[in-house]
Amino acid sequence: MRIVISEFISLDGVVQGPGGPEEDTDGGFAHGGWTQAYFDPDVVGGAFDEALAKADALLFGRRTWWAMAGAWPERAGDPFADRMNALPKYVVSRTLADDDLSWENTTRIPGDEAVARIRALRGAGGGDLLVMGSPTLVRTLMNEGLVDELRLMVMPVVLGGGKTIFPTDGVKHPLELVSTTTSDAGVHVCTYRPATRV
Predict the structure, then answer these.
(1) Which residue in 8, 132, 162, 170 could disulfide with 14, CB within 3.0 to 4.6 Å?
(2) pLDDT tens-digit readout, 164-197
(3) pTM of structure
(4) Alpha carbons 61 and 29: distance in angstroms, whole number
């Protein structure tokens, strides 16, 4: 499976709390829902539809899984929601128990087994293993060289701080731009893959 990361991201690299005011206020983050002014169904929505259509499974960190599990099951009947609900899901967590896995088709990956289990999933073949949100998990995947594609919806706003997906370990991660599309609102949907040459 290819591991594909799909993120809303600000110009200064923030991915925190894109969906709503109370989604993630860690660190005093006060800009929750910052993507709403830039969302359009064709370019931005189309990027998510395309990513989900190629996915054979979804992978989340605990916080993102919890937010998604609280939102998508009640939207049954919408084609996007139905696909989200039907796909196999994996959640990396040190604190969730199997009894907490209320969202159907969810399997827990214990935090201390995450890298090995995800590496095994990646080597199993099939379609994409899609990661949305989950910045702590994404940083780990990048550090371990387990990201095959980054799909970034770069929104024309600077948030001044917040959670990011990018490692801060001083290691260079060369990428190549595979495609880009721009919406009328100025969102750049950019697809990157690890560079084959530097």
Answers:
(1) 162
(2) 999 998 999 999 999 999 999 999 999 999 998 6
(3) 0.94
(4) 19
